[in-house]
Specification:
Shape: globular
CATH class of the largest domain: Mainly Beta
CATH topology of the largest domain: Jelly Rolls
CATH architecture of the largest domain: Sandwich
Number of strands: 73
CATH superfamily of the largest domain: Exo-inulinase, domain 1
Number of domains: 6
Radius of gyration: 38 Å
Number of helices: 4
Oligomer: single chain
Largest sheet: 8 strands, antiparallel
């Protein structure tokens, strides 16, 4: 009853109100129908006058109305659109309307595709809302909103600022909302309008360039003692693009070093007099005179390595936060133990980004059957916030965990066998956010935290009844991240390259040495050339003389690689002079063989064997979409170890994989049905895997079983499309998996754990650049920079090695001319075991040009001794003798030239001769091959 009375009361007309006025208001009419937004026909856009199109009519009153701005060109990355917008509309025709206003909406739009798809920002005065949203397929999505009182009958100066994909809504110089869209298409126009049909008033509309206010952020940087580095502090600050910001320093001298500005970057130089956290203030000014001040926090790490005997009683020392500590000397052995009942830190400030701690948890000296465990503590902020790794007391369990606000969380646990003697050798390795605890050299656990864990202090934690630590060492290692293209100096293999480095002002290079390649100092620049068969990461140690007279050392990481796309064949390093210096398996590209380091691509363990990985090293980041393809030769369950394609490879502990796990052949029975099944149906059961190795732990995400015909082997293809990979085998789609991140950052290759793997070629190609399994792969030549033959000489045994050209003969001519009526040219040839090529080696004579010369030598692949003539790209056989020849065997060749007669002998046992029509003792002689690798001794010419 009360509700009905209230309802009738609301329907009653008030004094002076007419029924027709109420009906007009119900339809949004007060003296006139609500019309379309009122926008100017011309506005100012980037200092030019442009036209604004008519407001597009909607199908209903609730459809947004927008008038588009006709800008002639693509919008810049940063721009602003502003207008003065009235929040209400008034009408004074009717008596009732003279005393009230009607709140309306006003929006500024961008990326306008059509009336169903665009982005907008503005206000809705009827609901007291500031809005950022977008229309998607005709539906309005509000991304950000702010509810506050919007004054009636007032004009707001509304402005949207676009910075790449970020939108900022400003009203009367007050920031209301911000939002980052996934993308903003600048080919689509901007506009003005309203969320609903209403005569919204727009004045002083302008489209201008946008220069964001300077926003500085505190920078932090770690540096070693007696080192120099350049910090780009502006990279972390938001400064208007296209404006040359000026950087000035407030402090040029700090405890432990000096700072200077070089090319708008801060150059730091430490003198080793102090370590710990230091602070430098700097300011940034733009061309408008706007200035901001910020701080650079510098952490000077203590010189490593450090051991327990050095720490005790030194400038570093221990700081006991909880419990107590004492030193115990075991009477019988004289061993010194560090007994701890709480938490203590080591006074080395924050450690470097890549470091390790080793110690031993010894048994109780009074009872060798008791070991109460203990932990290595790291990233310690206070007693209630730190990370730890070690052994749980009373149990043979190792763990990695953290204490957050006093609560303990065990992130990884592993029960291990009880050691004898009852002690634990702990080795904790920390690489940014990644941690790895190795116990007694044979068991480990690992965990990757969400953020870097090298910012806090390090120390030890003992059991409340006492833990006994024996020895302690803190060391630093160099981290090589093969996926970190930005942190590596990239060069092309077999090419001399100047390393782009930044030297302190007035400094000069004293010396430089590379682990694998060759490094020279020319005009105070580093000139690097990769070793003959080496590619991949290489460390270069550099010594620098500063202007002050002090000396510093730096370590540069150089990556020698090739360009995408590529095709290669598997090759072995046993024919090289020092095969142990390279990985056993490598890749042959355009006739050139490349091998990576067999150990050390894991940053914290430079002795770990990584030769099971055969990687492709590129000089640039891979595209978002590419294909990886390998060929396998007839794998079976009994002789096949999983050979998996790896991609997004960071190091041997972090990569993704996909491929064939095993293949089981069909039954070999003698029944008619078994014979028919093997003959006409797929006769192998195969299992396929897709997964990821994270910090050394393998995770399999997908596995499939397929029946396939593997009689003649198979090919495996991984198609990478953004963050999704597609796995195929023998022309059949096997699996698909979408990872969380793009897959093109790391390296790619093959994991093959056997010395004689089944895969024999590897290709990394553009998307879908190969044909189906029946037609094979298109013949496309890649990495043509490697096409010329490469001749190198070994200084130890005076051997010439040729890595051949696959398009032209590879020749090395002697400088000694022939000047007698009879000459003998002698050399020793060794042909390496290169699969897929016709191995050969010749003595070249009567050389006229690259398309016309004569040869005498051996063809190991065919098995003969030969005299022939090379003309117009074709070898013409003139005289041959079949022989049984082997690769990796040294053969001595003696060629005797007499007027027009040539006689070749092999090891003084076999010989053939041929009479030419030409005189043979005029033109140059030498050695060479036709698309084959070979080793030659320097030709001996007897006349």
């Amino acid at each position: 009853m009360a509700n009905n009375q209230q309802h009738h009361k609301q329907r009653r007309l008030q004094v002076g109100e007419k029924l027709e006025d109420r009906r007009m208001l119900a339809y949004g009419i007060c003296g006139r129908d609500f019309s379309e937004p009122n926008i100017p026909s011309h506005i100012t856009a980037f200092n030019d006058t442009v036209q604004v199109g008519e407001v597009l009519a909607g199908i209903s009153k609730r459809t947004p109305r927008v008038g588009l701005i006709n800008t002639p060109a693509t919008l810049p990355l940063q721009f602003s659109l502003s207008a003065d917008i009235l929040t209400t509309v008034q009408s004074t025709t009717l008596p009732r309307c003279q005393s009230r206003t009607f709140p309306i909406s006003g929006i500024l739009t961008l990326d306008y595709l059509d009336d169903r798809n665009f982005k907008f920002a503005g206000f809705d005065a009827a609901r007291n809302l500031w809005l950022i949203g977008e229309r998607i397929n005709g539906r309005t999505r509000i991304r950000q909103w702010l509810k506050e009182a919007i004054n009636r009958d007032r004009s707001y100066h509304v402005q949207i600022n676009i910075n790449v994909n970020q939108l900022q809504l400003v009203a009367n110089n007050e920031i209301k909302l911000t939002h980052a869209f996934p993308n903003i298409d600048r080919n689509n126009p901007t506009g003005l309008g309203a969320l609903r049909k209403a005569p919204t008033q727009f004045q002083n509309v302008a489209l201008t360039d946008y220069f964001p206010e300077i926003t500085t952020n505190t920078d932090s940087f770690k540096i070693k003692p007696h080192a120099s580095a350049v910090v780009d502090v502006l990279a972390n600050d938001q400064i208007a693009q296209s404006i040359a910001a000026q950087l000035t320093l407030t402090d040029s001298v700090f405890a432990g070093g000096t700072a200077a500005i070089v090319d708008d970057q801060i150059q730091l130089t430490t003198d080793g007099s102090s370590f710990g956290t230091k602070t430098i203030s700097y300011s940034v000014a733009d061309q408008f005179g706007r200035r901001a001040t910020e701080l650079l926090e510098i952490t000077i790490t203590a010189p490593l390595p450090l051991s327990l005997d050095v720490l005790s009683g030194s400038q570093y020392g221990f700081n006991v936060l909880q419990g107590k500590t004492e030193t115990i000397t075991v009477a019988d052995s004289g061993i010194s133990l560090h007994r701890l009942t709480g938490i203590e830190t080591i006074g080395i400030s924050a450690p470097p980004t890549h470091f390790g701690i080793t110690t031993t948890l010894a048994a109780n000296p009074n009872n060798q059957r008791v070991n109460r465990g203990g932990y290595i503590v790291f990233d310690l902020q206070d007693q209630n916030n730190y990370r730890f790794a070690g052994v749980l007391a009373g149990r043979q369990t190792i763990t990695i965990g953290e204490v957050s606000d006093g609560r303990t969380f065990y992130r990884r646990r592993l029960v291990i066998t009880k050691p004898n003697p009852f002690s634990f050798d702990l080795q904790l390795v920390i690489d940014g956010p990644k941690t790895r605890l190795i116990v007694n050299q044979d068991q480990y656990i690992s965990h990757q935290f969400e953020s870097d864990v090298t910012g806090g202090l390090v120390g030890l934690k003992g059991h409340r009844r006492g833990s006994h630590f024996q020895g302690l060492e803190i060391l630093e290692f160099s981290a090589i991240d093969v996926a970190d293209i930005q942190g590596i100096v990239n060069v092309s293999v077999h090419e001399q390259a100047v390393l782009e480095t930044v030297l302190p002002e007035g400094a000069t290079y004293l010396s430089a040495a590379a682990e694998n390649g060759n490094i020279l100092i020319e005009n105070n620049q580093l000139v690097y050339t990769a070793a003959n068969h080496h590619w991949g990461p290489d460390n270069v140690e550099v010594s620098i003389l500063l202007a002050s007279g002090a000396r510093q050392s730096q370590t540069l990481t150089v990556n020698a690689g090739i360009t995408f796309p590529m095709e290669s064949r598997l090759v072995y390093s046993d024919y090289l002079e020092n095969p142990d210096l390279q990985s056993q398996k490598g890749l042959r590209i355009e006739g050139h063989s490349f091998f990576q380091n067999p150990t050390g691509d894991i940053a914290h363990d430079n002795t770990i064997d990584v030769s099971d990985f055969t990687l492709v090293h590129f000089t640039d980041e891979l595209p978002e979409d590419f294909d990886i393809r390998i060929q396998l030769s007839n794998p079976t369950k009994f002789n096949y170890e999983p050979e998996l394609i790896v991609f997004d490879y960071v190091d041997a502990l972090n990569y993704k994989f996909a491929g064939l796990e095993y293949a089981e052949k069909g039954t070999s029975g003698f029944s008619l049905w078994e014979w028919v099944a093997n003959k006409f149906f797929d006769n192998a059961t195969t299992k396929w895997l897709v997964g990821e190795v994270i910090n050394g732990e393998s995770h399999v995400y997908r596995h499939n079983i397929k029946h396939m015909d593997l009689t003649n082997g198979t090919h495996v293809v991984v198609k990478v499309r953004g963050n999704t990979m597609y796995l195929s085998g023998a022309g059949k789609r096997v699996n698909k998996y979408a990872f969380d991140t793009p897959l093109n950052r790391g390296q790619v290759g093959v994991y093959a754990p056997t010395s004689q793997p089944f895969f024999y070629d590897l290709r990394v190609l553009e998307p879908d650049s190969y044909n189906n399994k029946h037609r094979g792969i298109k013949s496309i030549q890649h990495n043509t920079a490697l096409s010329p033959a490469r001749w190198t000489r070994n200084s130890t045994d005076s051997l010439f090695e040729v890595q051949p050209s696959l398009t032209t003969p590879s020749l090395n001519l002697a400088t000694v001319p022939l000047n007698s009526l009879k000459s003998t040219i002698s050399t020793t040839i060794t042909i390496p075991q290169i699969p897929g090529l016709a191995a050969n080696g010749f003595i070249v004579f009567d050389y006229q040009n690259i398309d016309s010369f004569k040869v005498a030598g051996i063809r190991v692949g065919i098995g003969d001794l030969l005299i022939g003539q090379f003309r117009d790209g074709v070898l013409i056989k003139l005289k041959t003798r079949e022989l049984s020849l082997n690769t990796q065997t040294a053969y001595r060749l003696d060629l005797t030239l007499e007027s027009n007669r040539a006689q070749i002998s092999l090891d003084d046992h076999y010989s053939i001769a041929y009479d030419f029509n030409d005189y043979l003792l005029v033109n140059p002689v030498g050695v060479g091959t036709l698309q084959s690798s070979a080793f030659f001794t320097a030709p001996e010419i007897s006349q």
